[in-house]
Amino acid sequence: MSEEKQEMIDRVYGELENVEDPELGVDIVNLGLIYGVDIDDSKNVKVEMTLTSMGCPLAGTIVNDIQNALSDLKEFGEINEVDVNIVWDPPWDKSKMSRYAKIALGVHEGPEDRA
């Protein structure tokens, strides 16, 4: 992967850190909901993510928030289309959260959670 492409992926992740899960109040990156970001040669962005539960009623809200968070990058021509793909495999669990998210939510790690 080119350095330029990796830098843009990093910028997309940075913008996604501004998108909070409305129920939990922690951003979707630190929650571990983002499984991957890819940018093709036409500068189209594909975000692969999951939600904390299959029946999450806020899926549409989160997808809209992602589109809004990336709108500045689109406006300045740094990226083009944004496609958000919600997947359920692998299923999300608390082990995917960053240390920051665990502290923010008061999730205590047991010995089985530590790597």
From TrEMBL:
InterPro entries in UniProt: Fe-S_Maturation_MIP18, FSCA_dom_sf, MIP18-like
Domain MIP18 family-like: 10-78
Superkingdom classification of source: Bacteria
Signal peptide: none
One Pfam family from the record: FeS_assembly_P
Protein name as it appears in the record: Metal-sulfur cluster assembly factor
Taxonomic source organism: Thalassorhabdus alkalitolerans
